[in-house]
Design brief:
Layout lengths: L2 E3 L7 H6 L2 H18 L3 E6 L6 H15 L3 E6 L4 H14 L11 H19 L7 E5 L7 H6 L3 E6 L8 H14 L4 E4 L14 E3 L16 H10 L13 E3 L5 E3 L19 E5 L8 H10 L10 E7 L10 H13 L3 H4 L2 E6 L4 H14 L2 E4 L8 H8 L4 E4 L4 H4 L7 E3 L5 H13 L1 H18 L2 H16 L1
Parallel strand pairs: 2-3, 2-4, 4-5, 5-6, 6-7, 10-11, 10-13, 11-12, 13-14, 14-15
Antiparallel strand pairs: 1-3, 8-9
Length: 475
């Protein structure tokens, strides 16, 4: 029932080569302390999916670096069913202050939630021994906390989502979760503002997420290779020379990229000489892909936008079992694009990126983000926004909503542009036109954004915080 995900050991040495001397020394010291303090203990991570979303993308490298430093890590993915994920998606939306599908979190939903997690607990319990550390990620796993505490494990619950402001919606979600995480030894949030009032003192731990600069999604790619990848994926017009495009997987095996012809749902690929505006997200209403589309369409004949193309890219929804809204939002965006006038419709591209090979998916996203002239993240609510971090690392100018963790990453007009009101479509269009017109500004924001990520949001910071968290729990 519970799936274990293999972890490939990774040396921290290549990562340290990108860091300053102080950062590298801090990371090496933290890994040494963690190895000594944890000893023979295993650190378990439990979440709801092995592919797609920020958690599933962070864990392979964070655990890989830890394993390479001699720390015992294991990663489990719970089993679920559509009814369970409907409930957890409802909690997800409510924690963001959004009513979502408008459904309840009553006795029936609680019973279904507990029933599914009880079944998962039966298969987990025999593998975890007293003294181990278990980090449960997000609402899908919160109901495991009591059972694991009873087994003698040190239980940490990690929330990657939240809202800056409390509301009846957030209160309802926290009331549902409170009974399950009350015994967790530490509650971890990406921002202090996401924490409910009843979490305080030593149990509260703040830990922003991070990206791995050496992963397939973030490693450096030459401009010619970027174009070749996008042409091979059918996301850019051009002549495919047929030469193999190879990449190295995390397990160090060499793979060859496949040719794709059907990733665009509604159009031909954009021409290579057109400015390309991109948003990469899950097909989630709170990411507001539809709002980006409408903003572009409304101003498609204005100034520099008259030559530009827009691409909204997200995962193939058939590969996202833990996100029941994905298919609906994807279909909504495709239908919305089809409703636009012909001269606009041909410049809007809806891409469903393959999920059957996560490494190839990462390669395509990397190329798409590097090729984009402007990257947008017009979320209505956001836990942190790793797609923003990824874009900044690639030195692309970013326009994003002033919400959640995005506002921690971007200082307006210094390393990106922030939208004070995510629903202001005219302001979004104006910001895009500004960056298309002012190349010097776009370049300056891109360079500053990369420096910001190097200083604050690479895996070295996250690994150091992990060590500090384990030290606190075991003290």
């Amino acid at each position: 029932m519970v799936q274990e995900v293999a972890i490939d050991e990774m040396s921290i040495d290549p990562l340290c080569q990108l860091l300053s001397q102080d950062q590298a020394q801090r990371l090496a010291g933290a890994m040494s302390r963690a190895r000594e303090r944890l000893g023979a203990r295993t650190v378990w991570h439990v979440n709801a999916t092995a592919h797609g979303g920020g958690v599933a993308e962070m864990l392979p490298t964070l655990l890989g670096y830890s394993a390479g430093a001699g720390i015992r890590n294991r990663w489990l993915v719970i089993d679920g069913e559509p009814a369970f994920f409907d409930i957890t998606k409802r909690i997800h939306n409510l924690l963001h202050g959004n009513p979502g599908d408008g459904g309840q979190l009553g006795d029936f939903e609680r019973a279904r939630y507990e029933e599914l997690l009880a079944a998962n607990m039966q298969s987990i319990a025999g593998t975890i021994v007293p003294g181990d550390i278990v980090m449960l990620h997000d609402p899908q796993t919160a109901g495991l906390a009591d059972g694991l505490s009873d087994r003698g494990a040190h239980v940490i619950w990690r929330s990657h989502i939240g809202s800056d402001q409390s509301s009846p919606e957030t209160d309802e979600a926290w009331a549902f979760l409170h009974p399950y995480i009350g015994r967790a030894e530490s509650l971890v949030f990406s921002r202090k503002e996401f924490c409910p009032d009843w979490v305080a003192g030593e149990r509260l731990f703040i830990m922003p997420p991070s990206i791995d600069p050496l992963s397939l999604k973030n490693r450096s790619v030459e401009a010619n290779a970027v174009r070749s990848i996008l042409v091979r994926a059918g996301l850019l017009t051009g002549q495919d020379d047929g030469e193999p495009i190879t990449f190295i997987r995390p397990d160090r095996s060499i793979a060859t990229m496949r040719r794709h012809d059907g990733l665009l749902a509604n159009s031909s690929p954009p021409p290579a000489d057109a400015p390309l505006i991109v948003q990469v997200s899950r097909w989630d209403r709170l990411k507001d892909m539809a709002g980006v589309l409408v903003a572009f369409a409304r101003h498609a004949a204005t100034g520099e936008l008259a030559r530009a193309h827009l691409m909204l890219a997200g995962p193939d929804v058939s590969g996202m079992a833990d996100d029941p809204e994905g298919a609906e939002v994807f279909a909504w965006c495709v239908a919305l694009a089809a409703q636009q006038p012909e001269m606009v419709r041909g410049r809007i591209h809806i891409a469903a990126l393959p999920m059957d090979d996560p490494d190839e998916n990462a390669l395509i996203v990397n190329a798409l983000q590097r090729y984009a002239l402007v990257i947008v993240q017009k979320s209505l609510a956001e836990g942190f926004g790793l797609t923003v971090t990824e874009a900044m690392w690639k030195a692309r100018p970013v326009i994003a909503s002033r919400i959640g963790g995005i506002q921690d990453q971007i200082t307006h007009e210094r390393d990106g542009l922030l939208l004070d009101d995510p629903t202001d479509l005219d302001a979004l269009a104006s910001s895009i036109i500004q960056l298309l017109r002012d190349h010097a500004l776009a370049d300056r924001l891109g360079v500053a954004g990369r420096a910001r990520v190097l200083d604050q949001y690479l895996d070295d910071r996250h690994l150091v915080r992990h060590t500090e968290l384990f030290e606190r729990v075991l003290a």
